[in-house]
Amino acid sequence: MAMIVITSASIYSPGQSQSTLRPVLPREHETSIPFHLKAGGFMMVDGSVNGVGGEFMFDTGSPFSFFLNDHRLDLGPGKVLSHGGAASGQSITVMLHQGETKITVANDIRIEGVEEVRVSNFDFVEKEVESDFLGFMGRDLVRGGAMLVDYDTSKLVVLKRGADLSIYGTGIVLHFAPNAAAPSVTFHIKDVSITGSFDTGSLGEFVLTKETRHQLLQSGALREEKPGAANTTYVLSGLTYEGSMITLRGLSLKTGNTNRISGYMFLKNFRALWNLDEGTISLLEREVPLDAHSVARL
Questions:
Q1: Neighbours of 220 (CB within 10 A)
Q2: Which residues contact 246 (CB under 8 A, 6 or more apart)?
Q3: CA 89 and chain centroid, separation
Q4: Which of 125, 158, 191 is where one domain is finished?
Q5: Any idea what the CATH number is for the domain that residue 263 is in?
Q6: Pick from 59, 199, 198, 201: nearest CA to 137
Q7: CA dihedral 256, 261, 262, 266 (to 10 degrees)
Q8: Which InterPro entries does its entry note (predicted)?
Q9: Of 6-15, 225-234, 265-274, where does the model show the most confidence?
């Protein structure tokens, strides 16, 4: 792929002041971004910020195009915007760094003219996921159309505007509120409801109440994937969404007070065609069966 250069002329939307720049990948052509999985399923993308190399995490739960790690990067002083917490529980202070920031993604997508960017101290991600963590690539970067998260080829494909999506086949289409931070739907199995929520920055979990677990095991809808294996995983069959049947594999089960499934725990079962603007995720069959992938790849 040739070097893609995104300049400041293309990175803010109509009605915005130029003081709030929002980089967005172009839709005039298809852009393919290789990723690799770490720490059990986080989508990591090679890149650099002001010449400092490392890895970004692609996280649709992050609202910003980029949310950089000022513990790894020496970006200089910034303005405090807010205080809050990460989804994993850590307290963070959100700062606004002003000044030109040069960002490269996947070695051939260069983003120029970024004059403001949000930053915070993400040292906890360095410790738990990647020591060279640069920050998050968020959903604002891929707004404006569809993208394919393909776990078979380990590529995030940002599709061109007007692309023929039928070439990817027919899948089960989940519907949620447009531009939701964590798209959420309700699945059913027999007379049980299970809440599903999805973002690429979450390893996710599969949780059932004690009563539901017993019911599904007794009915055979839930079964051990490989009986006697050291790490027990489960297969869930007969899950439905708007009349369509879904089977999920490789599930690590917890007991809790609600029935829910989220993040990579669910998404790893599919190639997923996302359109956050329209509020849809199309679940496409994987070409490589999930059980053909060794845990070591993660």
A1: 9
A2: 172, 187, 239, 240, 283
A3: 18
A4: 158
A5: 2.40.70
A6: 59
A7: 140
A8: Peptidase_aspartic_dom_sf
A9: 265-274
Residues facing residue 85 across a β-bridge: 91
- The CATH code of the domain that includes 30 is 2.40.70.10
Domain range for 136: 4-158
pLDDT of residue 1: 33
Q: Which residues have a Cβ under 8 Å from the Cβ of 177 and sit 6 or more positions away?
A: 183, 279
Q: Among residues of the chain, what percentage have pLDDT more than 70?
A: 89
Per-residue confidence (pLDDT) for residue 43, from 0 to 100: 97
- Residues 54/133, Cβ–Cβ less than 8 Å: yes
CA-to-CA distance for 292 and 276, rounded, in angstroms? Answer: 30
List all residues 6 or more positions away from 191 whose beta carbon is below 8 Å from its beta carbon.
Answer: none
φ, ψ for residue 2, nearest 5 deg: -75, 160
Residue 231 has pLDDT above 80, yes or no: yes
The DSSP string of 145-186 is S-EEEETTTTEEEEPPTT--GGGG---EEEE--TT-SS-EEE
How many structural domains is the chain composed of?
Answer: 2
pLDDT digit string (tens) for 135-166? Answer: 999 998 888 889 999 999 999 999 988 888 88
16-58 confidence digits (pLDDT tens) = 333 345 777 877 888 999 999 999 999 999 999 999 999 999 9
Phi and psi torsions of 31, nearest 5°: -120, 120
